[in-house]
Fold these 2 entries.
Entry 1:
Amino acid sequence: MNFIQKIVIFSLLIISHTIYADYGYPIKNPIAATVVGTPEALRITQADLQDRQPDYVKMPALNTQFKRTIDKEYKISIFPNRIIPDVFWYEKGGLKYSIAEHKTQAPLMFIIAGTGASYNSVTVKNLQKTFYQVGYHVVAISSPTIPNFMYNASRTVIPGNLLEDSEDIYHVMQRIMEKHNDIPVSDYFLTGYSLGASHAAFVTRIDDQRKSNQKDSFQFKKTLLINPPLNLVTSVDVLDKMFEENIPGGIDHFHEFFERFINKASTFYRENEELGVGKEFFYEILKEQPPSEEEMKVMIGFVFRISSTGMIFGADVFNRQGYIVPKNKVDKLTPSSSLTHYSKVAHRLGFNDYIKHFYLPTFEKKRGVSVEELIEQASLESIETYLKGNGKIALMHNMDDPILLPGEIDTLKSLFPGRTMIYPYGGHMGNLQYKKNVIDMINYFDDKKIFNKDDVVSLVTGEMQ
Amino acid sequence: MKISAFFSSFKSYRLILIVLLYVVLQGCSTIEHQQTVDEEPALNTLESLDVKSDTRYAVDVYDPWETMNRRIYNFNAQLDDYLLLPVIDGYQAYIPLFLRQGIHNVYSNLTTINHTLNAALQLKGKSTFNNGMRFISNSTMGLMGIFDIATGMGYPEISEDFGQVLGHWGASEGPYLVLPFFGPSNLRDTAGLGVDFLIAELYLDALGMNEGSEGWLFLYYGLMGVDKRANVDFRYYDSLTPFEYDFIRMMYTAQRRILIGE
């Protein structure tokens, strides 16, 4: 049985009988959608976008060629005098990002990655390739939650504050454009997914506030927020619980869970010589052997936890908070020190523990703001007036996104009156590669999008088959 | 093949490896001898989090040489950045795909000899037959292995190394080990790797490559390394976690246990 067949069968298993006639994304279980994404046959292809491709764009035939010949990786030093701890020696080269640029004048799209994701993640690369093909220069920027960004571009190295993290991103964008001032840009556009979407909202606002000084601002033509959380703190809690509450016997029994789970990878290992590493790999295993809903929840939570442990460890080492590394031990960490012990402790702590016991107290002290205010600032509602009154920011989201609490989708929709594209299914970004979604994104930036007044997007003007 | 011939042909390699190991080990001996007591323990410890002391951890792997291993791991990361990846970039940019594919197929075909032998030594009938048929068809109709026609005929690549043979007959994995160039391993698999190289020496000898200058062998093994690296999509410190070493150690160990059926 080949890969595609497995996907198709898996998909069929979880398709429920309530099918929206006008939206064909097939996976109706939001957890499965989050894990599986879009089945290969329904994903956007280069050929699908042929008629949207301007003459000046030349696309290579193979994906790997795009990465090698068009999408170029760079490093930039934002804080040249900062001393990066030895244990993070591999982050010393600067902030990494990538640009796919055209030779001619074209609009430029910034993409901000989601929690724990880099400029190089699969989701970012897919968006980058799509927007490149339809004519944009594309600049991909990592999430401020990954160590490379924290150490090279965050002023506090304590991620979690939407406003300050977005200011850091904004500064990075400016520095990148200064460095690449030979790129002929007509207009600037911005998008981000998941936490990167929250950042995109704040970045647009920061830019608007600087508008008086036209030289210094991008004056984004349009911004698209894809599957943002309403409030960072509540969504993080949901993801933490997915991990902690679905392991049979509790988190103490993660070892047994892992052993059972990894045995499911045996087929993958027999067919691939390669050692599976990283988040993408876990999703591969899940695709190979349909797991139970609980298992999928644990794996979504685990992938999230891998991200948060790195963030917590990185913030602790830099700021010497003694959160998991004793303060007097920080200086003794070398590139070859064993980190296994810290890894065990860090994996016990959720993102929410970090928010409550690290980020909030530190920021309360540093900025003199109360914990309640800080939690409010973690929500898009904190810039409600701005969002409601700004016609150039739109929302793309799913009714069944599992990172949202019941009712949060309605609050989100109310923040973008008449500027939403809400789909009935897709989980958390499972439909990002689905043809209709990609075309809707392109149409939105192209001014071809007609937003639907209903809760759920139904038909787009003529573009869809 | 005479044993002396084997050693002479491997001389230069061994020399490089010994020098590298020396450099790496030299560094190890100078650190981590101080055992300080935490004056102020961290806010969160396994104790403070009420974790039961008998809890097992997926990340725990027997790794008594961890400091040395981490050094070699970082050495490999830099080797990748400063040598292998630039070489591979050039290889992919200047050597056309069909040629690279052909090179890959030739190496893969020769390695099928190892796979066949190792499958037989583990008494795996199906895998032995598959790999044997694969070697025969690719060596003949595939023009000395340049074309992989066997996969299409239903004989896919099934990798069997001598580490698996050792494991099959009860050898335990021993301490975890990171090898320069090769990456994650353990004592048993390192021994297995050595035997697989010896087996390769046998057929290289039969092909006449061990005679005369060592230039051939350098080219053979050099290109083999480039081909191998080009076909693995792994990038050091790209997993976005500072616990990458632990993670890889955990995954490698789990993978080997699955393959060996432990």
Entry 2:
Amino acid sequence: MTKSSGHIIINIQKCKGCELCIIECPQNGMALSSNINQNGYHYAYLAEDICTGCTNCALICPEAIIKVYRKKKSKILKQPVSTL
Amino acid sequence: MSISQEGIHCNYLNEMDLVWDRPDTFTDTTLHYCPGCGHSVINRLIMESVQELNIEEKTIGVAPVGCSVFAYHYMFIDMQEAAHGRASAVATGIKRILPDRIVFSYQGDGDLAAIGTAETIHTVNRGENILMLFINNGIYGMTGGQMSPTTLKGSITSTSPDGRDYNQHGYPLDITKIIAQMPGSAYVTRQSVDSANAVRKTKKAMMKSLKYQMDGGRGVCFIEIVSNCPSGWKMTPTESNEWLRNEIFNHYELGDIKQLPKLKTNEI
């Protein structure tokens, strides 16, 4: 399995199930759970491993409970420019 | 890698960078706002801007009366509660006594455009060096969804069950355009928080206004944020955002109404 370039962690116990992040996800990778959390809300979760770490869900989330991780950029070693 | 209803468990998280997290200036208290409310996003955005500019120690916020009355529970900075509609007057007092502090007021449409119209107009007229945030959702959310001065024609609220009628209830008050005409205002803009891009733009406007105040700029920076009220409008959060885009933005057009003046070097 290829590793996706991003990942999110949602504090599901604080989610109020407003679905704004689900609409906002450009990859359509999020879904509303059929389970409920301690407050009785259906919570959003990352259903498919296609996250790119674009932070759209975290920006729109009213509760600010989404943490976004993104793959470290691979460092390209710069070759010294040979003097002509 | 395991998929469950609690989300995907990622076992290579240590290979990744944390790119977005709740700002430290925004407390861990569970917000009392209804699901999908724009207030929570705006509360967070102003705290994000304050943290990014490293001015937590010298920022003072003034909380309003209305849905956002508990703003001081969520903002981990110095806060002051003001009487209904008088947040801009209280902010004036704070800024005049402590001119080196960054002061902002946070008000809704019932607070700033109804009961506090006189204070708002005169604060801008005096050209106070504060940031005023105006959250316009066209309804009195906390008291049960009554019609506010900024409610648009045909909107059904608990005090206008047949929709707002201009002959009977008057016209919507566009206070942002009134303020843009006054010489005391420095920067007047209208933004929204209905999508991720709109959130980015709103944050940019807040950063700009706070920086202007830090650099010793003169005049009120006024940011109107056209927001939603899913409970008051009797809609789901996603429906309310679509309603914003399809109906409300036609009347309240987004964008800068008054551009920020360029500071001369001797003013800084």
